[in-house]
Every structure is written in C-alpha cells, then in structure tokens.
Write a structure and sequence with these properties.
65 residues, mainly alpha, 2 helices, 0% strand
C-alpha cells in the first residue's frame, strides 16, 4: 500500500509539471510568433488532457506488475 501512495504522489507531481511545461511552451511560442500558434482554449486542453492520459497509462502499467 505504501508504494501505491508514493506512485500517486510522484505521478501527480509529474503530471502537474508536464502540464505546466506544455502550457508555457505554447505560450512562449505564441509570444514569439507573429501569428497565433494555438488558441488559449487548446493550450489549456492540451496541458490538462495529455498529462492525465499519461498518468492513466502509467498507472495501468504500474498496476500490472
């Protein structure tokens, strides 16, 4: 049970970090570029859904061991 708690702590921290990095990369691309790369709604959607999907996949792999 202890290993599962550690997995969730670090998994959530990883997902938050990844979502922040994705959001900031697209935000800086929009600031640098003359044309908008992607909209704010797509930035938020990508920075939430991709880390959540990755966390689910990691949990499925972790739970099979």
């Amino acid at each position: 049970m202890g290993n599962e708690k550690i997995f969730w702590i670090f998994g959530i921290l990883q997902s938050i970090s990844l979502g922040t990095i994705i959001f900031l990369v697209f935000r800086s691309l929009n600031m640098i570029s003359e044309v908008e790369v992607i909209g704010l709604d797509t930035q938020i959607l990508l920075s939430i859904l991709f880390p959540v999907f990755l966390l689910i996949v990691e949990y499925l792999i972790y739970s099979k061991e």
